């Protein structure tokens, strides 16, 4: 459907009487008016009117690339004073808005010094990047970006838009409250938590209301997130208050079924956090009052201590997930005040029940997600052996109701035999550090990333279209830590020597985006230069943009996006080129109980290489209802 587009002043400006500006509509923003001096070509101005409020928004044009940017726009009121630890308050644009510079990041530790606090609490901002001026044609599809960082780190300004917007999409990175500011709570009425998720939902609503004025199509908004941001994207897309605004989801290296996607023991986590902040006494109302009396620095520094505690000793196993501290909590379905919650049921329950919108899902992983999370010597020392670490990792998996170990063991017996999971997780005594490291990366990547991704796609595909990709290009210049510094899953980069050849968590970000620090300053050392990297950037950015253009009709005509099927497990390999393949890690994921069927003839006997003879286990299978306590429960 063609939509009338709003007016953007570019080469010619008009002085508009206030009354005319107030009466303007998207297709009639300026009528009549007095011609004024021609503005600079890099000085775009958009006139908007939403909710009875009009505004003049001034942005910038990049003279080298032609990209238009509008930065540091508030989508919600400042979450300070009485708005601190409260739901976000939607903010309309009004008057003159200077959107020519990045806003501050939300309060967080400085990555190189965790006890130095950076950022500002008045940070509920977003940026808009568009490759062209609004006109009378159909608007461009919109990518709303939710950055990762374990709900503790990151900003909208880190992600340079040119690689993505050059493919004809509008890019809108958003910010949300981090750490305790955005996550502390127990799911109860007065301190439910999930304020960060509510910030995101408010930003999505704002984009839906305003994006047409910037040349975007509000009926084509794709929610894209990475790591914890991917978990949030899937949760938001399924939430009643946000689902009507979203037409597709991209979950990069994360999902709502991932370990630590939400707090398994919210009351315990809440007590731990409030005690750490010395605000544990009294009810939730008194806790909020106590927290509001704390300085920004006090709260962030206590969060740093909380993060350290959550990864201490054998809890080091949490470091293979993309989390860093407090996580979302399941809220009450009805708080008695008519306020909608966001996460009102466990994600696995919602997915099994089909309680999500009928929109496409693209879910992906990097080839070696946990490569930069693992220090073999540290693991051997802490867990008294790498085998114990792997078995502890298996306790994170969960996914009850999605897996069927007995069925898959019987199926795999016909293609070369299979190991029991506990046997597969054993590390032979004679292995060297390199062999151990490779095994740890493979097994933890399967358990924490690949298995949840496949199961998510499998569940989603029962009601809509779902697609899987595997990012497999190793960049010469950019790494995940350039964007995710401070996050435990990238903290061991370079520790084991062999990981320089692998593609870890976040390593794809510098190819989809230009790399900036949290303030928006380019990181010169991460500049993409080599021909191989440039090829991979072109392939990946166009792949994501192509998904942004997907709609109900085009999904049935595309030969790259082959919807998930348990038979064959089709997926897309992303490297210097895009390639379609089948049977994504069929043998390995079947060990964990993923209910898959191979498309082609293959043997899984290779899984026993180096571990002794392959053990067939038909007739000696642990029932699925006991798997959680035996294999997954440690």
TrEMBL record:
Domain Carboxylesterase type B per the UniProt entry, residue ranges: 44-586
This protein's record includes keyword rRNA processing: no
Domain of life: Eukaryota
Signal peptide location: 1-29
Keyword presence, Signal: yes
SUPFAM superfamilies: alpha/beta-Hydrolases
Pfam families, per the entry: COesterase
Keywords of the record: Glycoprotein, Signal
Transmembrane region(s): none
Family: Belongs to the type-B carboxylesterase/lipase family.
Name of this protein: Carboxylesterase type B domain-containing protein
Organism name: Anopheles coluzzii
